[in-house]
Amino acid sequence: MFTADMLESIKKVEATREERMKTEPRRMTAEEKETLLKEYHPDYRADGFAEIKIGPNKGQKAPKELTDLLHSNSRLLKTPVDLSKVDYETDVLVIGGGGAGSSAAIEANEAGADVMIVTKLRIGDANTMMAEGGIQAADKENDSPVQHYLDAFGGGHFAARPELLRRLVMEAPDAIRWLNDLGVMFDKEEDGRMVTTHGGGTSRKRMHACKDYSGAEIMRNLRDEVLNRNIPVIEFTSAVELIKDDKGQVAGAVLLNMETGDYLVAKAKTVVIATGGAGRLHYQNFPTSNHYGATADGLVLGYRCGAPLLYQDTIQYHPTGVAYPSQLFGALVTEKVRSLGAMLVNKDGEAYAHPLETRDVSASAIIRECANGRGVDTPLGSGVWLDTPMIEILGGEGTIEKRIPAMMRMYLNYGIDMRKEPILVYPTLHYQNGGLEIGGDGFTKAIPNLLVAGEAVGGIHGRNRLMGNSLLDIIVFGRNAGKAAAAKAKSVELGAMNLDHIVSYAKELEEAGLATDAVSPLLLPKYARHER
Amino acid sequence: MSNLVNVYFFGKKYEVPGEMTIMTAMEYAGYTLSRGCGCRHGFCGACATIYRIKGDNTLRTCLACQKQVEDGMYVASIPFFPTDKRIYDINETKPTEKVMMELYPEIYSCIGCNACTNACTQDLNVMQYIAYAQRGEYEKCAEESFDCVACGCCSVRCPAEISHPMVGLLARRMVGKYIAPETEHLHTRVEEINKGAYDELIESIMQKPITEMKELYNTREIEK
Predict the structure, then answer these.
(1) What is the ipTM of this complex?
(2) B219 at the A interface (CB within 8 A)?
(3) A529 and B39 in contact by Cβ < 8 A?
């Protein structure tokens, strides 16, 4: 299904394959990487960002689209909701039904707390479900949590919060054991040893996987466990505002039934924000690998009631999103394709970089190739080749079907057999490195009974995240948040509930000259076309 | 706009670009989706869809996010299907043949019509994995059902009213928890960490100045 020009270029990829396979491309030096990032990484494009004018991060920059949402008002400002009519009352309210929210709910339930999940789509409609490549944990003899720490800290440009990264790496093996005991089917050798591979920027092979359905396999186990425990899951119901009390605590959330448009009140002693990422805001017009609901809602809710953000200006573009065919534009091609040996090759058949540099470096190098005429033209832009037939040569016939069946299926639907032909890729908006700031205990520093877990947290990974550390963080920080929220709920005494903070937020906006009728959180992307 | 085709969403005709998927074509037509739209990349099973091409009586199933529109396509999405998940305690449920009999006895009413397999949006051999479940062959059932996204198209078509995705899921959890071999290096590492074997080392690396961390990082040995 490739165009004639693409087929011409494939001939060059095939012609250089044998020679390329004899040597491993050189890794870049620290200086080379820095120069490349500054010139080509989207985080360095000043016109993609705007200054935040109010709130705890006032004066700092954020992607324009996020800034617009932070500069919007609550939809409840003009639609008062009677907080005295409480529809749900619980110890722990978890906002978000992905991997972090579900892990939190399971642990809170295990700790004996009353817990409920609200989610604007279905439980499991989340980026967790779509994570393909794997989950990191230093559990082999030649590895250690300290080595894991070093890889993640360096890969994140030495900006991760040490107390958060410590928890991530030290609790990683236990996270894998917990998942295994839930019933997650990890790829194992016959003797039980985990099958592990490299990811970009890892110094040890510590990527555990479940074929290329790693996140899906984890998510469906978590979802099944939530349901088995009879934890209430309120689907198609968004949290649109946090409720506070007169002691400066959170006291629950106002919910919106996405189908009837009715508002509901949930009262809770502790609240966990586990709303995930922001890919559907399409920063700098990038396509995204994210699920439909990834619209940064939790960041907006938290920020409006006073919780600061951290590293909100750093975004991860996954190097290998689908560039062609256009029906799959922006869909993720797992890094595992490169872990298994596929090289990145430009239009002329040249392996222009090591395939397993960190994601920010790898993405920047693809953008560089395409910006300088060494990419292959596609209907929606351009891309470089990911030389997938190499996997079958290296690992033997059948490796692709066994190790990355989802990728094979996705392409075969459109007549492309990645076992025989290379595929075209270009960076896709994948992950928000930043988010709400938390301490090592999982609580926000500004509000004593508000916790955050998963992609909505900032600071765990610094300014770039390694493959396999996000599936890990949703489990580690999700579990921690559930336990901590359950424990905290025992001592919380709620005062009078109010929404005063949305009024003062509106006033702040007005004083900054930003009076507006625009409302946030966004809840769903605006994809419907209403042109005539 | 190149190559426009006529499609019918819930019986109503719309003209849409032919290169679109059913999902993006619905949005092009003006729909704001909340039901029937999840990951948009073929992993979550939210967008189970039934369609028929004008002039052909065959009823087909697909994921709306993965399927390209065709001229004359009559499309109905399945916003929710009441799949019948049974509740169990994973710690009390052991992988015996009895488990399926107790939790999903309807699988033994399978009439072998193969409608489930024909309906599968992932091209899985669904009837085969149900047969494995009947016989208590959980590893085979798990392997055969592994790529299931639980869209429910199989269950919609099943005359025996089996909730196939739930059967596969139970088998996989049995395999993951009880049947797959134990991982010794994992248990060892968890115990080492619990005993504090890495406490001092991690404290020490956390305290190191950035310049030293850069040196350590840039010169670290990478496993081949």
Answers:
(1) 0.97
(2) no
(3) no
